[in-house]
Amino acid sequence: MAPSGRALIHSLLHRSSIAFMLLVTTLLVASWLLIEDGTHGLRQAALAQATQASARAALAVKDELQPAEARLMQAQREGRPGPGVAMAVLPPDVTATLSGAEAGQLRFWPLPRGGGAPPEVLAFLVPAQPGAATPMLRIPVATLESLLAPPPGTALRLVTGLGTELAAAGTPGDVTASLWVREGALRVDASATPARMSLAVLLIPFFGLGTLGFIFRRHLQRTDRVELKLTALRGSLARHAAQLSVNEARMRLSQNERLAAERRQQSLVEAWPVPVALLDPEGKLSAWNESFEALLPPETLRRDLPSGMLTRHLDIRAPGKDNGRRGPGNRPRVRSISMADGSRLLEALPDAPAKGLDEARLLCREEMLALAPQLREAVRLGDGAAARRQAHAMRGLAANFGLSALVPVLQALETAAAAPQMAGLDSALAAFEGEFDAALRQLGSATA
């Protein structure tokens, strides 16, 4: 089995590894030369394949064009059209490409496609003078492509002397070869993709390095016992360190679980709808919400406060043993609720409602119902000042009657109405609509 990477690096850096380093260098150089030679051979094989393909295609195209050239020459000698040959003046764009060409030379030009007709190539003889009529004939591109017929792994292109492609077949490769069918007028470009290097050749350096490393490592194991003992000692220390890490991780997990439990308890207490405090199973104060803190003198509450010191500031009598209300200076009335884990909740009991409070809430409800349409209309018209006034008035009512969920929503609506371009006003109104019905129900009314 080959050694691990760390052991191999350690072997390479050993003080007696000069000979081993020479072996490794020789192996790498020999592997590089072998791979480079193989790659060059594969490219040469691909080049030979491309050259053979271009030669075969050039001969086929040349044989096909000889009769066409003979007909063009005959029409030029007779000065009149022949079978399949027309006498016409070349288009200006074709004439512009004939600079320096000798009269009577055979040239080719791809005709533009149009009307759904199959593509064609124009074969013509260079006229003696620009603008003079010259014989020409059309050759279908499909005929030229059928002559190319590239073998598997190669691609062939038939191009003019100016590099304009007339026909193509096959998938292009990395190695190219060209052969002229007509010098300066028509040539065949062939390309081929070299075969891939064998995977076994690419793995030779890795197998060689692994074998040399394994041999050298066995040599070190026989000659350097002290280092092996130190390695075993390092492993033992690492295991002890790992065990310490596991123990530390367990302690942190236990601590995290305890903190998570405390956070859950704190979240429960903060979400409680009335003032409440939580006593742990040992009878010590562990959590409370802000509304409970407001019932007691400042700086009275602290974590781990014994229940005896806490109940000195509370009234835990049954509801039937007092007058139902807390007068000036009286202690807050609470009731104790036992939990499954042995902890207790001290929940504040609401005071008896004052005389006339129901009538005041009904009046607040009617005022809310009167102001809400005005607020919606101001938002719809984009009147920020009016929306801010209506929201401010409703926020005062909500604060006075304990509608704690509606107060921050109206505050956000006021802020949005005062913001530049009233950004976020629509979303603030939507949040208000979501809390408005609940506020009306809290006042003792049906949904608006």
Can you put this structure into words, describing what you see?
This is Hpt domain-containing protein. Keywords: Membrane, Phosphoprotein, Transmembrane, Transmembrane helix, Two-component regulatory system. It holds the Pfam family Hpt. InterPro entries: HPT_dom_sf, PAS-like_dom_sf, Sig_transdc_His_kin_Hpt_dom. The chain folds into 4 domains: 160 residues, no CATH class; 44 residues; 77 residues, 2-Layer Sandwich (Beta-Lactamase); 86 residues. With 448 residues, it is α+β, with helices and mostly antiparallel strands. Helices cover 52% and strands 15% of the residues. A hairpin with a 3-residue loop joins β7 and β8. Strands 1-4-3-2 form a 4-stranded antiparallel sheet. The protein is flat, with a radius of gyration of 49 Å. About 2% of the residues have low confidence.
What structural keywords apply?
alpha+beta, single chain, 4-stranded antiparallel sheet, 13 helices, Beta-Lactamase, 4 domains, flat, 448 residues
Summarize the structure.
The protein is α+β, with helices and mostly antiparallel strands and 448 residues long.
The whole-angstrom Rg is: 49 Å
- What are the segments in which pLDDT stays under 50 over at least 5 consecutive residues? 321-329
Total beta strands: 12
Number of helices: 13
Q: Helix-strand pattern, N to C?
A: HHEHEEEHEEEEHHHEEHHEEHHHH
As for the number of domains, it is: 4
Quote the distance from N terminus to C terminus. 81 Å
pLDDT averaged over residues: 78
Strand content: 15-25%
- Going by helix content, strand content and strand pairing, the class is alpha+beta
Largest sheet: 4 strands, antiparallel
Helicity, in percent? 40-55%
Q: Per the principal axes of the C-alpha atoms, what is the gross shape?
A: flat
Q: Biggest sheet, strands in spatial order?
A: 1-4-3-2
InterPro entries: HPT_dom_sf, PAS-like_dom_sf, Sig_transdc_His_kin_Hpt_dom
Pfam families: Hpt (PF01627)
Keywords: Membrane, Phosphoprotein, Transmembrane, Transmembrane helix, Two-component regulatory system
Protein name: Hpt domain-containing protein
